[in-house]
Design goal:
Elements: E1 2-5, E2 11-15, E3 36-40, E4 46-50, E5 57-62, H1 70-84, E6 88-91, H2 104-110, H3 114-124, E7 128-132, H4 142-151, E8 169-175, H5 183-195, E9 199-207, H6 210-213, H7 223-243
Helix pairs in contact: 1-7
Length: 244
């Protein structure tokens, strides 16, 4: 873990966890179909090859419901970086997908809540994820965990397990008024996502003293910090493009 000097003498956390484990069989992984080009050679034999995805679809959201959330502001900036790199970004608010606490008895009687079905469909239709998560009591938020629990559920016998997550790429961010910047929550979130098939970028961005770093336009005041956020988002797009 490297500490880089940030504004007001604070240490900006920049952590690397080693190379991401990329899927070996990209053709068979669930998710949006990969584009391919077909043709016929001079001997009359047909051929096809996979084409690198030009505009990967990225789903961006914060693990917070609060209207003034620092992480909602942060993920908007990350989304700008992804768009600049050529991605089609869908920015959502988990407040628009209200769900009851996960309860298997409720699932058995009523199936997935409609909001869970809608969110699951969004996950399935995108190639990558930008997540800015707050730290609650040294972990990530309950609303994010509850959303993951619901959309990880299999709806029928034909559906592959964890279809909303397997093969997705993801970059993690956090912002907090505290000096750690929310990074303890990202440790747990990284474990959960990695265990359900998500390919996580080894780098992540945690921003401390977030209550002092955003201006009245909800943008980051410090250029170096903003560049780190957009830079990681751009890297997610590059990796996602190569894997799809």
């Amino acid at each position: 873990m490297d500490k880089k000097p940030g504004p007001m003498g604070l240490a900006m956390e920049s952590r690397t966890f080693g190379a991401p484990k990329f899927p070996r069989h990209l053709k068979s992984r669930p998710g949006p179909a990969r584009p391919k080009k077909c043709g016929v050679d001079l001997q009359g034999r047909t051929w096809q090859r996979w084409i690198m995805l030009e505009n990967p679809r990225i789903l961006a959201f914060a693990g917070s419901l609060r209207a003034g959330s620092f992480n909602k502001r942060l993920v908007k900036i990350a989304a700008e970086g992804a768009r600049e790199a050529g991605a089609e970004v869908t920015l959502i608010d988990l407040r628009d997908f209200p769900m009851p606490l996960f309860d298997q008895d409720l699932e058995d009687s009523d199936g997935l809540p409609e909001s869970a079905k809608k969110l699951k469909a969004l996950f399935r239709s995108h190639h990558g994820l930008l997540i800015a998560s707050p730290e609650y009591n040294s972990s990530f938020s309950g609303v994010l965990k509850n959303s993951i629990d619901w959309i990880s559920r299999v709806e029928n016998a034909q559906e592959p397990p964890l279809v909303a997550f397997t093969g997705k790429t993801c970059a993690l961010f956090s912002a907090s008024p505290g000096w750690r910047g929310g990074l303890r929550g990202l440790v747990h979130l990284r474990d959960v996502l990695g265990n359900i098939g998500v390919t996580l970028l080894p780098e992540e961005v945690s921003i401390p003293a977030a209550d002092e770093l955003f201006d009245d336009e909800e943008d980051l005041k410090d250029h170096r910090t903003r560049k780190r956020v957009t830079g990681l988002a751009r890297k997610l797009v590059e990796i996602t493009r190569k894997l799809n």
